[in-house]
Structures
1.
Amino acid sequence: MSRNKPLLFEVYPGLKEKIPWVPILSNVPTSVERLRQVEKYLGIEGGELWIKRDDKDYHIYGGNKLRKFEFIFGRILKKKRKGVITIGGYGSNHCLACAIISKLFNLKCELFFFHQPLTWHVQQSLLLYNYFKAKLHFNKGILGVAFNAIVFKIFHPKNYAMLPGGSLFFGIGSPLGIIGFINAAIELKQQIDSGIIEEPDVIFVAAGTCGTAAGLIAGFKLLGLKTRVYAVAVSMDWIVNASIIMKNANKALKYLRRKDKTIPDIHIDEDDFELIEGYLGSEYGVKTKRGQFAVDKVVELEGEEKGFKLETTYTGKAMAAVFDFLKSQENKNKKVLFWNTYNSNDLSKYLRETKMDFSKLPKKFHKFYQEKTFQCWQITDCPENIRNNCPAYLNSEYRFWKITECKLDPKKSQKAIEYLTEVITLEES
Ligand SMILES: Cc1ncc(COP(=O)(O)O)c(C=O)c1O
């Protein structure tokens, strides 16, 4: 169903025509669902655990970026830009979403990457960026990324430069992405008002560039909700910290108020949210044991049946924090909502079309396919007809050695299991 305006313009009609917006989301409001099996596993007494299914907010590729893009691409189209330049890790969900939505609007997409640990997810993502017609730029070091992206922008001024994650960068940039999550807060408020869910005590959300968390924090305060946002840090502390969350939230609120003076003059300070640290591991993108455990457990108990996924860079770490929170005696009666920011649509049909042929990528990316990270089907030389029907094939996050229905000679699959157990390292924290 296509929408002709965001909820934000319904609540604040004065913002209409003053803020750019283009409809993208094809499935909103996203549903809220109770995770009763996980509740049982955690031994919750009197409390509740719910999930907000933003993973299905857009039919090709869901997740948090699409909410931000309704406002950001609104501006890109209004300014008649020819393309978009953005930055992310090699396996960036933000870059993938940007490639898909740029293609939707016939815009060029130029992606500049920084390092993240090499995983099967990274290998898949690079193939998908290329499949959705984005141009991949190889860079050396974090400064190299910024330098190359800036130089590119100077020589290609008709491209719109979107900051990493569609958020602000140290308080600089446009707050439009964050406004996507003020809009999302209104959506949740309507679900509360119509009795679909009671007002949660706490919302857990992964914080990478802090735009999602900041938008929710600002939105809830603006709407007078008591729900407290727990932002789980999944990037280094110079990127995720209380000051950055406040800057993101306050700049978005100030921007809205500048456009419409009827919007209450509120300010976000440190007491308005919780920043949860200790789940990142040694760096952005590494798999931690707690994160992988939470992914496996939730997918096994509810995800497979309800059709959602978690992954180990963002949502697995945020879910690990939910587990610890709800296991503590003092929180057992709390109503918790987990905001699922990761896509759960199946991308395997696109991946199959790439035929895993990395030779189509720029040469500098080929090395990512020639080093370590083999998949079980590569090790066992699994025939195509078996591989195509196997749940382990093209499955980036769930550990395929848990799959018991392998159709291959058990000796061969055992060999793969042993190899993969050795290669895949999980960090303790
Ligand atoms: C799946 C997922 N969850 C959470 C986030 C973090 O969102 P934000 O950058 O707004 O903090 C990202 C960002 O890329 C993401 O891909």
2.
Amino acid sequence: MSTSPDDGAAYAGRVSALIEDLELQLLRAIAAELRAGSDATWEQTALAGLQRWRQAAARGVAGAEQGLLQVILEVMLAARDDGVTSAAADLNEAGISRGRPRPAGATVRQAEQLAAQVMATLQQTPRLLTSVYQQAVTAGAGEVLGGKVTRLQAAQHVLDRLLVRGITGFRDSSGRNWALTSYVEMAVRTATGHAAIDGHTQTLEAAGMDLVVVSDSPRECPGCRPWEGKVLSLSGRVGTTLVPSATGLQAVRVEVAGSLSRARSAGLFHPNCTHRLTGLIPGVSRPRPVADPAGYAAKQRQRDLERHVREWKRREAVALDDGAAARARAKTREWQRALREHVDANGLKRLRRREQIGVAT
Ligand SMILES: [Zn+2]
């Protein structure tokens, strides 16, 4: 069986669901403050609520910490287990008995590092949202004088924009700007994907299986192309080698293109990589498994439609008046219809959990 950084996507979804819930909780609290107050005193009331909101936001972030630490540890260990299971299947197919299991200590330490990284990111959220809060209160002051929009409509516009883009302004170590959920999603996806590959290769290594194969990928990822379909070694040996066939007939000549660790440090299995790794079964492995680009694109489109459904549900949750709530509900139904049609047309499975908001807590 194979492992890939792409396998981290399902695990990352569990963590980003928690983050999305927290994001929604903080935005709902802003909307609740903005809905209060009469027209004449709206701005003063809303700004007076800011301090109260900041305290609630800090409590919300602190309250999410324990749950996040737990889920991050769970997904990292589960990903590693998937790798171990994949390796066991490879060994079984090759007729090699499994070695002694390696301890998972390194994965636990990586989980702790990942959790610290996620928490450090989350702690910036109240500060970033404070400026959104202030913008929502002061937005449209000029247009409102002209009578074109109400203060509440102008504030709604600021909140809606935030729901489309997500909370932005998070910087990674290379200075790149991220939205909160995409950043956490990427970090967890990458870490769990690597935990799966590590569990896989460590288990193969412990049993004495040295050679692995890199698959073709349904998605273009030019950096990995030099390794597509290639055999790599865990030990570092390179060149032509004769290995006994798993079918027991004769030795098989194998060309080892390089070592896995060098390929990884040169970019193989980068974040979002969809290439897969399998133990080489001499005489059995087909180095180029058939890719399914159409199926892959259909699933990506489903994820995209699910995101739209969630976005409009969130917009309903932070609607400042009944009209905005009704419009958001209508849009939600529209995207749900598009999703239903897409799922039916492509024979996909609809996953209700991914269309819901506020389910992770
Ligand atoms: Zn790749």
